[in-house]
Design brief:
about 260 residues; mainly beta; Glucose Oxidase, domain 1; seven-stranded mixed barrel
Length: about 260
């Protein structure tokens, strides 16, 4: 199946017959990435008097309670409500789901000295210089960052307590100023695991100014982009679960552009 779309800037051909998900499937137990001291997801049969939601245990149907944390258990999309006093729900504010996206592979830099109280020697960081010279087509509103090394270990990695790679706030400021509205990363956060609650990278992306929040902008974390996908432009379908929460499990899917 192929389609031709008009972005307002270009007419593009898209291969809709080969969807390429870049989300990580959430499963029961330890076969998941985990961050922020969250527990692993638990899928448990419903149990009530005279009923068990497991055919294997003698029930008529399978019906399970699922316990998880959106931020700590796999691919999720979050809105500005992640850092505000007000309650903003991601499924209420992110209403555009199809975007032209640019996939970029980057190699993090190791800090050789302390830069600030929350940027320490030995940290892995994605510096702003990577994006300073980048040119995006005017209809590209989403950017996907794949970090190196890119092993499948990311599908089950434990990030808690290991201070994983993060972004210099100026990196996200540059992306915001370039008009990027949706950022997707294969990290558990764009900010440092322990940053004193500053959340500087999140703020740099979600605010044009202290009084100008970008309510429609989103950050998707813990994606996994296999090496089979080359850097370049794709059509992105950013599918978000209808959860009334600042973050929700999501399933971003890429479609290749054709000549």
């Amino acid at each position: 199946m192929k389609a031709r779309i008009d972005t307002g800037h270009r007419k593009l051909n898209v291969d809709l017959g080969r969807p390429q998900p870049i989300s990580i499937r959430m499963r029961n137990g330890v076969q998941n990435p985990v961050a922020w001291y969250a527990e692993y997801p638990r899928f448990e049969p419903v149990r009530m008097e005279g009923f068990v939601g497991s055919v294997a245990e003698g029930g008529n149907v399978n019906t399970r309670d699922i316990h998880f944390n959106p931020h700590g258990n796999g691919t999720h999309t979050e809105c500005i409500g992640h850092i505000t006093k007000e309650v903003y729900e991601v499924d209420a504010y992110i209403r555009d789901f199809m975007h032209i996206a640019q996939l970029i592979t980057v190699k993090p830099t190791v800090l050789t000295e302390d830069v600030s109280e929350f940027q320490k020697k030995g940290d892995l960081i994605i510096p702003s210089k990577i994006f300073g010279a980048m040119n995006l087509a005017p209809d590209v509103k989403a950017v996907i960052i794949r970090t190196l090394p890119n092993s499948e270990e990311k599908l089950e990695r434990v990030y808690t307590g290991y201070n994983p790679c993060y972004f210099h706030p100026e990196s996200l400021q540059i992306l915001r100023e370039m008009g990027v509205e949706h950022l997707l990363v294969d990290l558990p956060s764009v900010d440092r695991e322990s940053d004193g609650g500053k959340m500087l990278a999140h703020r740099a992306f979600w605010y044009d100014a202290p009084d100008k929040p970008r309510m429609h902008a989103s950050i998707t974390e813990m994606v996994y982009v296999p090496d089979s996908l080359v850097d370049g432009e794709y059509l992105l379908n950013l599918m978000i679960s209808p959860f009334g929460n600042d973050a929700a499990p999501s399933k971003p899917v890429l479609y290749s552009l054709l000549p």
